[in-house]
């Protein structure tokens, strides 16, 4: 079976424990409703992206903070079970991050996060851990850790010749310094509108192409797939297979982890995008974030073109 066993990437970002309620109808303010079921699961945008990348067979180093609690211990075991390098998982004197997730009958979610150890990471932590990376070609980050930590990580990665991917989620204003150090910016539709100075939705190729003047960009479009801004500034759209969504939690992270692993393996950017969409489409047919991601035997490596 083809896989990315010779590919090495790193992720700096969040680790969370997801506490998820499923209900046909979510309660309004001041209202109480019965839910259908409740689960706990491993999450955090950074951890999700790292786990999906590891599912492809890539060798993944996770740079993250966990707490000195049960959730932290369980998260560390999960990383090891996924075959990831955990030497840069830092146990810090606080609680592990948690995400409270509500999923409605249409599979749409609402999420509230309490960062905990994710916000205890420091820029020096980032410099120290990224500096240790050997033969890593891609570094992924998000916005669930302090932005100055990501900035320090990307600055160090640039010095080492490592390609940087930023998923600006959850949205926050980004500094020009961070954007200049970002090789690939991958927002979803909501984040795109926040990044655009006039808050336009990515509903035309002209709008999508106008957002970024330097670096590369992909906009993920949910069930409509994704749009890639090509090297010449044009926009190429990629469709997603139509499926019935059970739970969209973590689908964007699934795309990014799979895309990054494919890109680092030497795949063409177009096939890496299609590969990411295929993995994410499989994930929305199952409940949870990491628990929904396709295993290596379910992944379609025939989509990859070098």
From TrEMBL:
GO terms for cellular component: cytoplasm. Substrate binds at residues 16-18, 44-48, 144, 253. GO terms for biological process: D-ribose metabolic process. Catalyzes the ATP-dependent phosphorylation of 2-deoxy-D-ribose to 2-deoxy-D-ribose 5-phosphate (dRib-5P), allowing the use of deoxyribose as the sole carbon source. It catalyses: 2-deoxy-D-ribose + ATP = 2-deoxy-D-ribose 5-phosphate + ADP + H(+). ATP binds at residues 188, 220-225, 252-253. It comes from Candidatus Planktophila lacus. Residues 7-295 form the Carbohydrate kinase PfkB domain. SUPFAM superfamilies: Ribokinase-like (SSF53613). It is an enzyme of class 2 (transferase). Its main location: cytoplasm. This is Deoxyribokinase. The keyword Metal-binding applies.
